[in-house]
Amino acid sequence: MSLGLRKLAAAVACLMISAAAFPAGPEYRAGEFSYEIESAGAGANGTFLYKVTCTAQNPPAAADAASACAVHGVIFKGTAAAGANPAQTPLFNGEELTDGQKTALDGIFDGKHWKKYVPQVATGSMKIAKMKKGYRVEATVAVDKRKLRLDLEQAGVVEKLGSMFN
After folding, report:
1. Are β-strands 48-56 and 35-42 bridged in parallel, bridged antiparallel, or unpaired?
2. DSSP characters for the chain?
3. Could you read off the pLDDT of 26-51 as tens digits, one per residue?
4. pLDDT value at position 26?
5. Does the N terminus or the C terminus of the chain have fewer Cβ atoms within 10 A?
6. Of 77, 140, 154, nearest in space to 108 by CA
């Protein structure tokens, strides 16, 4: 085996080991929520701003699609550091959801209760483009992360902030 093939085999082995050692988080409705999210700074009244890129079935549904994806992203994805905006870890950091956690999240996303965590979608920043299937939406969404965290703590989806010190 040549030196180049050995290096390639070693790199592939390392990738496979790292994928097994660092499993991805839960795939809560992964097919339903397809989006990109990045931090866009701090908003008014303690909210956080997120730039969300997702798809919607039609233009009137664009704001709702971006809002739901923003809340999903805050819970499960978090954001990488972007410019002056620091990285934000996801609220849920477990590997798998329990049935109780899934039920609580279903209550938030099925009943559109996620809207109470989104005080504003900056409609002036919203860009909508027609694609082959649906519409590509890019919007800045304000999320009340504190209120979302408190409700998720009460529902038992995420641990309380001070729980590690008890």
Report:
1. antiparallel
2. --HHHHHHHHHHHHHHHHHHHS-----TTTTT--EEEEEEEE-GGG-EEEEEEEEESSGGGHHHHHHHHHHHHHHHT-B--BTTBPPB--S---SS--HHHHHHHHHHHHTTGGGGG--EEEEEEEEEEE-SSSEEEEEEEEE-HHHHHHHHHHTTSS--GGGGG-
3. 566 656 778 999 999 888 888 999 99
4. 57
5. C
6. 154
Among 61, 65, 64, 60, residue whose Cα is nearest residue 35? 65
Greater confidence (147 vs 165) lies with: 147
C-alpha to C-alpha distances, 60 to 51, 56, 110, 141, nearest whole angstrom = 19, 9, 19, 16
